[in-house]
């Protein structure tokens, strides 16, 4: 009998969280952007990479959104306990132009690896940033300055990252 009651409590929790998610979705469409009462939900997804930006939750959702909005996808792999990730995050979040340009992308930051091998073309290191176009092709031609870790960026590389973001948007216009 104990197991059954645990199960019903668990199901109840699931139902509550789904209902909350639905409510948040409704509110967001009604409210205009000017309102200061932003739902706290998207900020946790940013993990500090840009709290004003809209971040997707999963790789699958990011691919879907990229394909359907015709925006390129930028994926940032990082880890909380990695000093290089932390340093890059700080530089990324404080770079006004990057933050502004990032609005033109579907954004995803991950603290775990996906099963998609295309996202680790030269290894599973962090931090690494990959661009994917709406045809769902990883842009192997948009790389950082390190030949041994093609998609790695240091905080000092933010201007290169910025121009790579511009490149990802330009390629989109010329190819599609």
Secondary-structure map with pairings?
Elements: H1 2-30, H2 41-46, H3 59-69, E1 73-77, H4 83-94, H5 96-101, E2 106-110, E3 128-132, H6 158-175
Parallel strand pairs: 1-2
Antiparallel strand pairs: 1-3
Overview of this protein structure:
InterPro entries: AGR/TXD, Thioredoxin-like_sf. One of its GO terms (cellular component) is endoplasmic reticulum. By secondary structure, the chain is mainly α. It has a domain at 59-169: Glutaredoxin (3-Layer(aba) Sandwich). Helices cover 47% and strands 9% of the residues. The protein is built from six helices and three strands. It has helices at residues 2-30, 41-46, 59-69, 83-94, 96-101, 158-175; strands spanning 73-77, 106-110, 128-132. It starts with a helix and ends with a helix.
Compose a concise summary of this entry.
It contains six helices and three strands. The protein has 176 residues and is mainly α. It has a domain of 111 residues: Glutaredoxin (3-Layer(aba) Sandwich), CATH 3.40.30.
Strand order of the largest sheet: 2-1-3
CATH topology name of one domain: Glutaredoxin
Average pLDDT reading? 83
The helix/strand class is mainly alpha
Q: Tell me the series of helices and strands, N- to C-terminal.
A: HHHEHHEEH
Number of helices: 6
* Assigned CATH architecture of one domain: 3-Layer(aba) Sandwich
Estimate the strand proportion. Answer: 5-15%
The largest β sheet comes out as: 3 strands, mixed
Shape: globular
Number of strands: 3
Low-confidence segments, given as residue ranges, are: 16-35, 38-42
Kindly report how far apart the N and C termini lie: 60 Å
Q: Give me the Rg, rounded.
A: 18 Å
CATH class of one domain: Alpha Beta
